[in-house]
Amino acid sequence: MDGLDSCSGRVEVFKDGQWGTVCDDGWDLSDAAVVCREVGCGDATEVKRGGNFGRGSGGPIKIHGVNCAGSELMLSSCVSDDGAVDPSVCDISKSAGVICQSLVRLVNGDNSCSGRVEVNHDGRWGTVCDSGLYSWDSIDGQVVCREVGCGDIIRAEVTAYFGQCSGPIWLSSVRCSGLETTVRYCGSSSWGDNICQHESDAGVLCEPIKVVNGSNQCSGTVLILRDGRWGSVCDNGWDVADAQVVCRELGCAREAKRGAYFGEGSGPIWMNNVNCVGDESILSACSGSSVSSCDHTMDAGVICRRKLPCFKTF
Questions:
Q1: pTM value > 0.70
Q2: Helix runs in the chain, H state only
Q3: Alpha helices, DSSP H only, in 125-173?
Q4: Beta carbons within 10 angstroms of residue 243's beta carbon
Q5: How far is residue 178 from each of residues 152, 255, 264, 310, measured CA to CA in Å?
Q6: 28 touches 47 (CB < 8 A)
Q7: Do the Cβ atoms of 222 and 233 come closer than 8 Å?
Q8: Residue 305 forms beta bridges with which residues?
Q9: N or C: which end of the chain has fewer CB within 10 A?
Q10: Which domains does the chain have, with CATH numbers?
């Protein structure tokens, strides 16, 4: 919250039906790394203490004494003090914050949810090869779509569909399970160890939908991308069937939220009176109407739960 962009700001958690901040006692890069991973923003580059991003909305300190190993997927999985917060040690002037840097990006697409996949290694951006021992496929692409904050994958692209790069080719033989939080954690060749050419640069086309201001990548205000601009959805008629479609598109399970539950958005409101049956694969396939009587106090939201694929053991 209140950061320079969506990958920096004050850390807030939703607990006991209320949003609150995290005390900065012991707050370090391992803790920040978990937050950055949870919100889909790559690696932590800096920790902030002492209410650097503001004191919050007046809610209580929800967590203190956080001690993450750094490998956890969620902040709630980290060790923390269970006791009551001592106001002489922690108050809202000691709110913890993070600055994250995404190490994966999409380039040369029609919007921020499509393009050539590029990864940052040793401070340099490079591409991903679509071939090798394993070929670039939709499972690999889905990890990227989730990582960059977009919806489900539409299509994995190969043979430099989004144009050729001129920098290093960092990864080849990529093989993701689908569980990874970043394509950098997928199985692959060693960094830069390949004989690929840039005519084999991999790309991805993702659904132009995301959720923001929630506690993780599966909850928040629903935003859709149209004409190059992100805009919200009005909550007229917004229900569980509609939320089910959004959550399926994001690869999650669902709960509908109305009345700008996650805060008011800005910019256009793209959809109104959404009426999904519930089995649509994308929100844009649902019926709806043009916006006439909505404002951002009526922004629709969802709370989803990440669905993990099942694997057989042999």
A1: no
A2: 29-38, 138-147, 240-250
A3: 138-147
A4: 26
A5: 12, 23, 32, 10
A6: yes
A7: yes
A8: 253
A9: C
A10: 8-101 (3.10.250.10), 104-206 (3.10.250.10), 209-306 (3.10.250.10)
Q: What letter would DSSP give residue 308?
A: P
301-303 vs 219-226, strand pairing mode: antiparallel
Q: What is the largest CA-CA distance in the chain?
A: 61
Strand partners, 176: none
Structure tokens at 220: 């928040």
Strand partners, 9: 2, 98
CA distances from 197 to 65, 131, 135 (A): 49, 10, 14
The pair of structure tokens assigned to 272 is 């109104």
Q: Which is higher by pLDDT, 88 or 195?
A: 195
**Per-residue confidence band for 310, with pLDDT thresholds at 50, 70 and 90:** very low
Nearby residues of 84 by Cβ (< 8 Å), 6 or more positions away: none
Q: In this structure, are residues 221 and 232 in contact, taking their beta carbons and an 8 Å threshold?
A: yes
Whether the CB-CB separation of 121 and 183 falls below 8 Å is answered with no
Residues 68-126: tens digit of each pLDDT: 988 787 888 888 886 677 777 787 788 899 998 878 999 999 888 899 999 999 889 99
DSSP 11-27: -EEEETTEEEEEB-TT-
Let me know if 18 is exposed, middle or buried by CB neighbors in 10 A (0-12, 13-18, 19+).
exposed
155 vs 109: CA distance, rounded Å: 13
Report residue 314's pLDDT band, with 50, 70 and 90 as the boundaries.
Answer: very low
Looking up tokens 């390949």 gives 194
